[in-house]
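Annotated sample (chain length 124).
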Amino acid sequence: MRVGRLANLADIDALKASAAAAMRLAGPAFVICADHRFASPVSTDLADSWSRAMRSVNRNLGRSAIFLHPANTTFNLQIQRVVQCAGSDARRAFTDRKELLDWLDVRLTEAERAALRTFLDGQA
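Output written by the structure step:
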């Protein structure tokens, strides 16, 4: 999933609904990758809501990777906090594409690996 601007709780709710639908389709031990390279900083309330939503699906999580742009320092710090508060070692944020791929590849089929590379090559 690609994430851009999260301006209010409605945006967070829409993100949660979209992620929940994808997770239901994927089933237990799902793997998810979110492209946040073009996202903007969010308020503390939104970050807290986002972290709670992540925490609520931890029991079904196989692995989760969030792709960040290295120059987006403020947002990246927020995401690191959100991921930490979500409370799962199965979640990580990356600014390096190869590290992200290495993290997820062990959980993916060959077709899923190809789809992930195509997804990461795309634009927001």
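Annotation: The chain has one domain: 9-121.
Annotation: DSSP finds five helices and three strands in the chain.
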